[in-house]
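Project standup — Tuesday

K.O.: blocked on the structure for the chain from last sprint. Re-posting the sequence here as requested.
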Amino acid sequence: MDKTKRYLVVGLGLLGGKYALELTRAGFTVDGINRSEGHLQYALDHGYIRSGKTKDFEDLVRQADHIIFGLYPTALLDWFRTYGRLLKPGCIFTDVSGVKTGLVEPIQELCPEGVEFIASHPMAGRETSSVEHAAEVNFAPANFIITPTQRNTPEAIQWVRELAEVLGFRHICTLTVQEHDRMIGYVSQLCHAIAVSLMCANDNTDLCEYTGDSFRDLTRIARINDKMWAELFLWNRENLIAEIDQFSGSLGQLRQALEDGDRDGLEAMFRLSTQRRAAFDPKLE
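H.V.: unblocked you, prediction finished:
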């Protein structure tokens, strides 16, 4: 990656802030745009960005060689419809959005001549939010997913791969937009839906006095950014509903085994879950 290029981060939240921090640490020139003056000032005070603005930022957009959008999908579409025309020819940019269908194609169609959007997703979110917590994020063990389309050039795909490497991601893969959203519906959104449902199933306020690690681990992600996750769920509703239905069928199978007193059936499910979970565990040398 060319360190003479100017980077702009639009949306200095948890991930946008982390991108800015790591790029600055790596020696790149990074500017920022953010709606909140307080969060922008935090990024300036802590050296995440060289300069930044909350308004009248057209000059920063025009000067940027690369842009990272740390915005929700709806906000990104709205922003690009207003300011996308300002991106200069040769600018290649990416996002951090957790849903791609309904976002990638419209943005690519709106791109000015010579400007390219290569979508990507750093799967490194946390239950905390805002730039104040960005330094706590660890990209190394997280997955970085690139979602190219036929509109993307090999140069843009290579750029975003090198970006991921500079940021510290050790596992980088490529999926289509559709494959990404199906996968996210299962491994991310369904997990959050289960955690939220578990916390909302009854008033369990007093359980924190005597619960064990199982409940704490299962519900860690139930401490959730309501606005962001409501948007992501709705944008990917068809995939998520299908995954909820599949999960409900599996839970129903377990319930039926309990109702029937079927110990063999329960043990078979437990063995299968143990076998499949082992694929996620570090391999011993």
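K.O.: great, moving the ticket to review. Residues 177-200 form the longest helix (24 residues). The chain has two domains: 6-175, 180-280.
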